[in-house]
Records
---
Amino acid sequence: MTKIQILQTGTVWIKAAQVRARGAGLMRIYNGLFDADWSPELPIYAYLIEHPEGLILVDTGETARAMRRGYFPLWHPYYHVGIRLNVQPDDEIGPQLRLAGFDPRDVKTIVLTHLHTDHAGGLAWFDKVRVLVSKQEYEAARGFAGRVAGYPNHRWPKNFTPELQQLPAIGSDLMDASMPLTSDGAVRLIAAPGHTRGQMAVSVEIDGIMFLLAGDVSYLEQTLRDGIPDGLGADPAAQLQTHARILAMARRRPLVYLNGHDPNCRQRLQDRQTLQPPA
Ligand SMILES: [Zn+2]
């Protein structure tokens, strides 16, 4: 039977106006960076899917090394003004997998929803594992341009060679841009652009419910329901379209929304609390 476990790799604070955008255009970015108000302490989640074909890990969380000065490029403003982390060595994905009863070597496939530091930071725990990233995400994240765009790619493992995924074109339905990851079709990759242009979500079918492991489609379920993009995402219009496709899906069938940082995810997973779109 397929099962999902939630793993937490420390916590993060970002600006309130990064969680919920304020203003448009350049003001959105300015507020997302320089807002005087911080978010509450937010969890950094990864998700483990136990499937008959093997363990699938969705995101790898953050590393404790990110707490050290100089881990991120010192010239990049975001790491100075926009983010505070609390990740201790025992919070990393390796110890968290062991707490859940597994070993990092048991993981067969890693899906990175996107390559931001708090999703790709735990990669060093894994050796010779199949890692899936969208081609568009990988191309946006590599090189100096990637570092400017907020991807600390100089911290990727030296042997980082993900399998680049190209999903079908986006249509009006959420599942148009999706493809199966398991042979029974119960686990699928879905294009979920907006927060980053190449972001992927993962859907898992269990007992007639779609569990949507959504990365940073939104930081909170509430901002998704409210139709508010985040403050520093790459393409807020695309993000709102992704929100609309998810809400449309949730109107048609039970869908549990599980993302990277919403403190209510643990409860939603445990109680199978479905996403209730606004009337
Ligand atoms: Zn992100």
---
Amino acid sequence: MQFVHDGNFTLPSQKDALNHFSKNWNPEVFENEFQERSAFAQGIKIIQNYYKDNNPYDIKIVDLESRFSVDLKHNGEVHLISGIIDRIDKTEDGYEIIDYKTANKLPAQSHIEENLQLLIYLLAFIKRYPDLAKNPEKVKLSLYYLKHGTKLSATKTAQQLEQEKEKIFDLFEEIKKSDFKPQTSPLCDWCDFQEICPMWKHKFKKEINATDQEKQALIKKYLDLQEKAKENRQEITSLQKEILDIMESEQVDRLFANKKIVTRTCRQTFGYDEEKLKEILKKKQLWDKVVKVNQTQLNKALRTLSSSEKQQVEKIKELKSESYGLSIKKDK
Ligand code: SF4
């Protein structure tokens, strides 16, 4: 999108943009060919649709990939927020700040009204043009969902801006309390902090001494054993199936071999009519004791809440226990 709008007198045509996209395509970042091909096709479609819906010559660009930093004072502390705004346009009576999104899901309008990223962009923009502080509604804030070809916009009055700043201050407090566990995602490939991130820094360790070699040998032994265990588990599952078949054909529930007894066990799970169960147990004040928060369902429900409701839930979250395990995956 930066390429599409970058130019003084002549701007790239759709054909130029498609060529630029193809030339700069990096297939390495995808896990498999299918993902790579569908992402490429999606990119082509996004560019074609973008040109169908927009004439770059009609747009008055103020800045692209516009770097900013804004400091916000709160409780005697100064917090510096910096970032890059994708695009700033001049409109008939003001400006428009645009951030491109490649999300699959188009959010509700309320998401744009409450969007913290756009709020920060607006504060940064007002720092650049302080006269706008009196009438920030002259700055349209937009998220452009490229996969849908849809732009969702909002504006803020000076009063709203003042009130909503509180959300940023609340976030400062949350950030100070957080312990920031790193979470790997495809974005790690673009992260500048890999060399200091606990999830990656071992890969970049330069000096390997004797102790490190011992550690490497230990890790290798663990991985080999895990591999063997995986093979054993597969074999055990297939033997279990064969033994259950023998029991079925001999009509027995126990087999005797090698001074051991192998018994067929049966695990059953039941479901209940929840409304009826609730009715019975509520009378005895037992319902609250049997109902537990289902984390999967809660995560789904959280996605539908507004950011302030999410923050309320976050505040009442308590860590009950913590334990560590190991997981293994291929290093690309
Ligand atoms: S490299 Fe580390 S800090 Fe960077 S995105 Fe990945 S997990 Fe997060």
